[in-house]
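Form P-L/3: holo structure prediction, ligand MGD.
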Amino acid sequence: MVGSVAVPVPDLDRTDHVLMLGANPYASNGSLCTAPDFPGRLEAIQRRGGRVVVVDPRRSETAAHADRHVAIRPGTDAHLLASIAHVLLAEDLAAPGRLAELCSGLDELPDLLAAFTPESAAHVCGIDPDTIREVARELAAAPTAAVYGRIGTCTQEFGTLASWLVDVVNILSGNLDRVGGAMFTTGAAGQPSTKGQPGTGRGMRLGRVTSRVAGRPESLGEFPVSALAEEIETPGEGQVRALVTVAGNPVSSTPNSNRLDAALASLEFMVAIDMYVNETTRHADVILPPPSPLQKSHYDLALLNFAVRNVANYSPAVLPLDDDQPQEWEVVLRLAAVVAGAGIDADLAAMDDEIAQAVVGAAVRDEHGTVHDRTADELLDVVGERTGPERLLDVALRTGPFGDGFGVEPDGLSLARLERSPHGIDLGPLQEHRLPELLRTPSGTVEVLPEPIRADLPRLVASLDRNWADSVVLVGRRHIRSNNSWMHNVRVLTKGRNRCTLHVHPDDADRFGLADGAAAEVTSRVGRVTVDVEITDGIRPGVVSIPHGFGQNLPGVRLRVAQEYRGVNTNVLTDEELCDELSGNSALNGVPVTVQPARDELSRSSDR
Ligand SMILES: Nc1nc2c(c(=O)[nH]1)N[C@H]1C(S)=C(S)[C@@H](COP(=O)(O)OP(=O)(O)OC[C@H]3O[C@@H](n4cnc5c(=O)[nH]c(N)nc54)[C@H](O)[C@@H]3O)O[C@H]1N2
Ligand SMILES: Nc1nc2c(c(=O)[nH]1)N[C@H]1C(S)=C(S)[C@@H](COP(=O)(O)OP(=O)(O)OC[C@H]3O[C@@H](n4cnc5c(=O)[nH]c(N)nc54)[C@H](O)[C@@H]3O)O[C@H]1N2
Ligand SMILES: [Mo]
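OUTPUT (holo model):
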């Protein structure tokens, strides 16, 4: 829509109304939206008279604090949002304001969304039509509002359309790019929309190439991980025979774990950069250990670009490296040298210099940048002794929107300035009216109807006729004391009652004959797990929930604490063929399952 990776975030500190779907910041503290004390900022909205509306099949911690909780049927957020957009349009509540001029394609929305009346969406979403109308009217009536959708809305069958519709509703309600609405962060470093010609560009292309076996589309140079197992298994030209994992545990985190697990075992070669021997790295021929996080400096190049204030924070390494211990970037660079054919003894310092030359060269060539009239050598001289990522960070900060421009703005940002500011630098609240300068689309407009979206909409319309109420579906959840798959070896974070339980509504427990604390067997198309039952009315009937990242008790794993934990891997159940067709992204939520009492408690450990 805007032509580069720019995701608007809710202006939490100034908004009057948040409509949040598929996110539980009381556990996660947010996602693609960075805010210290996210829950406190939500409560501040309520204290100043605003409202928080949460759409979630579970009464999550966040939903429990909300002014309104809408318990949606999983996988149907796109239908709900399309219907909200429909109400805004049909009731003449749409007020895009200045956005009308900046957008193209808006006028086509009424026709394209005509099928999504509250009545037709209601039976899909399992929400009554009046609630949909009220949610839409409240959003329109609020002086400012922001719609925010995350993991629950994007990792599902209509995930891309749901994410698109979040932006559509923000546009129709006039809230995109204005104070109190959904705003674009101005990142101090590494933000594509602060480089090159303002207001126009080449735009984004999806699916320039497709994956070999299933034809899944590439996006930003990546294939969806749902294609990985088949790419390893399927013989022929281009078959994946070697794998490098860096800070990833795909056997735990990606769908149909058992299939990927078997596929990794069939590789000719695998190397992992990781500090643990876990579900994934146990398949590696070589595990290269990174230094401790305390031995590494940190600047969050990714998530600071989605912060609710413009900020820059740098933390230096706390502890030194041991003698002969390489930095993690040196490990990665050496692997790159080997893969590129330069050999194990390649001159890393020379490679690092080349990379810095390339990065500074690009900054110098940017005729809209602050260092256009300078030379790369001159700038690298100013950077001085630094090497590796810190040198690149210094260049990015200095040539970024708050940078010192290598002397042009003496008070501007540089890494040295961040080093002198151990608490970080607050660059102020988000700025409105970053449109149209932020755009990098060929048309120079917010392209409201990108072609892949238009082509995918009929799939959403067709699904209105599906019999949604038929199956029991599985969703995930997060807990504040767990981080994906890798905090379970820390005793202080895992002690206490089992948190890897199957949440089941009391009506469903009756229906399936499940008792609280007993074991249930959950089966999907691809797998089965045996898991402790926790009966709770905090989940919608017809929906069950298991958190991801547990189940470390596999042969070969060396995680003493985690292996003892009474958890199961929910991604044994998620299905690599159940994807959002448009992106190929896996539907981790809304997976059809059957549930029954476990035949045998002992089967728990033998489920694999
Ligand atoms: N403590 C902790 N913090 C974390 C993480 C962690 O593992 N632990 N992980 C980090 C990472 S990698 C990320 S990406 C973020 C994620 O952060 P969030 O995006 O906030 O994700 P979750 O906390 O998983 O909340 C997702 C919610 O979506 C609901 N849901 C499931 N299916 C649907 C659906 O179909 N529709 C709707 N509307 N809701 C649905 C679930 O019930 C759940 O409450 O958190 C980050 N922070
Ligand atoms: N069912 C279900 N599945 C999910 C999700 C869900 O909500 N439901 N969430 C999805 C999401 S949002 C995400 S982001 C993925 C996460 O998926 P992954 O990124 O695959 O999983 P993590 O568990 O975060 O794995 C991190 C790995 O990095 C290692 N590690 C930690 N620190 C370092 C370091 O400094 N250097 C190196 N080299 N390694 C390090 C850890 O030991 C661990 O092996 O999971 C996804 N999977
Ligand atoms: Mo994530």
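COMMENT: The chain has a mean pLDDT of 95.
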